[in-house]
Amino acid sequence: MGTTVLLVEIVVIMSVVFAILFFMYYKYLTGKTEADYEATHDDYYDYGSYLRDNQRKGGFFSTNNFILNDSRSIGMRYLMTAIVFFFIAGSFGLLMRVSLIEPNPTLFANNTVLYDVLTTEHSILMIYVWAVGGALGMAYYLLPSFLKLKSDKYGSISSTAYWIYVLGAIFILLSRTSTRWYFYPPLALQLNPYGAGAYNWLAVIGMEMVFIGVTIASIITVRTIVMDRSEKVPLTKMPLFAWSILFTLLMFLASAPFFMSALAMLFYDFFNPIFFTGVGSSPLTFAELFWIWGHPIVYIAIIPEFGLIYEILPKFTGKKVFSYNSGVVGLALLLPLSELVWGHHLINSGFGLHWAIFFAMTSFLVVIPSAITIFNYIGTMWSSNKIRLTTPMLFVINGIFDFIIGGITGVMAAMTPVNEQVHGTYFVTGHFHFVFMGITTGILFAGIYMLWPTITRGRRYNQRLATWHWALTAIGSFVMSMGWTVGGFLGMPRYVAGYFARYQVYQDVAIAGGVIIAIGQLAFLANMFLSLSQNPSVSTNNAFEDAYDNELPFDDQEEPEGEPIKTPAPAGGR
Amino acid sequence: MNNGKSGVVYGVVIVVLVAASLAFVLSAPTSSGGGLTDPSGIKIKGTIDQTIYADASGWNYSHGPINPTLYFPVDYKIVFTVIEEDNLPHTFTINKDKAYTPGTPATSFENSNTGLTLITTSELTQVPGHSVTKSYVFFASGNYTYWCEIHPTTMDARIQINGTAESTTVASGIVSQPIICCGSNGGGHHNGNSVLSSFAQISSIAAGVMKIDHPANLAKFY
Description:
The structure holds two protein chains of two kinds. Chain A is mostly helical. In chain A, 66% of the residues lie in helices and 0% in strands. Chain A contains 17 helices and no strands. Chain B is an alpha+beta fold. Chain B has one domain (47-221): Immunoglobulin-like. Helix content of chain B is 16%, strand content 23%. Chain B has helices spanning 5-26, 107-110, 192-196, 215-218; strands at 47-54, 70-73, 77-84, 92-95, 115-119, 131-137, 142-147, 156-162, 173-175. A five-stranded mixed β-sheet of chain B has the order 2-8-7-4-5, with no helix packed on it. Chain B has a four-stranded mixed β-sheet with strand order 6-3-1-9, with no helix packed on it. In chain B, strand 7 and strand 8 (156-162) form a beta hairpin. The longest helix of chain B is centred in the first third of the chain and has 22 residues, at 5-26. Residues 32-40 and 165-222 of chain B have low confidence and may be disordered. The interface between A and B is large, with 62 and 47 residues.
């Protein structure tokens, strides 16, 4: 190709890009001007809050969410991204399961490194996009009404944070890295193009971008909770979900810098290995830096769901939360304790007995706030006269059930002698999936079902399909995790594409569970198709907001197409 | 957008993205054999050990002739052991799909994207005496270049692969198995494409008769 042709092509492409950008900017500016006018006209604080409170116009599953910058649209974005990546990463997990049907590799017989790629992508995407992204989405969507926010002025920064975050997630997917989710050097430093680790550097960059995005979003959300809260919502009466988000994000901001700096050093090590593989350094340094972050992340992934349970329970038990104060204390205690238990992931990495005892002891202490929370749930349900077993409530009950099993197995794994036996086995995987399938996944789905009429603009979900979704997810995750837990206790090693033949029964049980879970998620997908092809029939009232006497201008009538909602706003806006 | 059909579109997007991601991830480049099972298809005739000292002044700078030309037979697994001599970072890079033509400056290979870095700076730490062992199989005869990407002007030398046993001399190498070699594609000239698909790296250490996928299947990994 000649230089002239190249230049012409570049000029043409750049012109098209600039034209598109200009058109987008024009649309944005006109829309903003319009919204500004409407906001002033309707006595709103700013156009962001106007858009936020009239979000029903655009609908939930809408591309508008990716253009508008109010907090509800951004929350929707996070949730939509989380659901997409949940299905992507879930399909990876299913494929991994199916490939283990025989002791010797069958599906990936000649390229078992694909199993490592699938493991890595499954874990990273599930944790950072499904769990963290879903929690952020719920926070962005629910907090403005929970805290009765007047203004909505950080939309553009939040939007930037979202795009950095989602680009990082896409980079991680594109990198096809095989380093596991903990990026241990020297494995992560393999740049040989023959291995699947050829683009590990891209995964490191993507990881950093995810962290930058979530950090910006965390700072904005913490500021929203602490400083922008309405005077009508004092700290002592703040919804428990807001408390849980506050503790989660503080935990994130306190522990993420360790892993962010470790990743930066790892990236430097690609070119000049001085930090973790050179003279006078040790890969264990990276492991420590990772787990200072890596343990809080598992709390970051479940505490927002604890808060969601506190919001769902009163709805279906008809009672207030059994003890608000102990709920806050339970969540608050997890904040310092989670920062102190990270060493139990490295107990047999040569820490020595004293540190092992210290970390095992702090791991036992974490039981206290977890038990406070669980007994709070049980107390709420116990004091109820009638529990309505709707789909979200079923998910909550299953979550409590799974969390008890997952918590007990977790404490078992943290005991020093037992850890020697179960370290690096499927026991850990089973423990983790009990908690993540029960609490993180189940409660996020419960929240989505709660919000369903709101996010689909007045459509009801198919109750039978939703129950099947719950039943298959609950049974499948129990069967899968229990197969792993029992097999792992007998020594079945994890993270390998094959296994010894004597573990086949446990692996096959886990495969059965995994397939059941997958069918359950298909039920969710079918529900979405069915529900959205119907006509709107129910109120778009946000079920989460009912408890907080939110005087949002709801009306149950379907709005005419394209016409902005004119609602009388209370004095002073909202 | 307001009639709710966008939600159905969202569901379709999920299905499409899941399929695309699966296809993308499953097409990841993998080492032959994936590390667990022996590769199958091609026979390796033996193993040759080759030790090279990495010094910024030139390969083998303080051990015999500088930048020695290495002679190997075709279809043999060459086990390169590179030993760090100074405190500087080095790579061991060979041009993988272009044979060296005499008279061409070596930089033409170094600047091209055809180099295969067998040993990276991350693997060969800057501790004098540290050694890294990697193996490679040349399935086509011809002249190749090996160099250090950090010091391309000083650490730059040739590898000569001969297809026939008669013309094979092994310099500064130890033949651990007798040469019973008769190259099917020995000696002749060849274009880039045939070379591209005609050799592969073996990650397994196992010696003796090894098997590899058909070369045509390996082409996508380069």
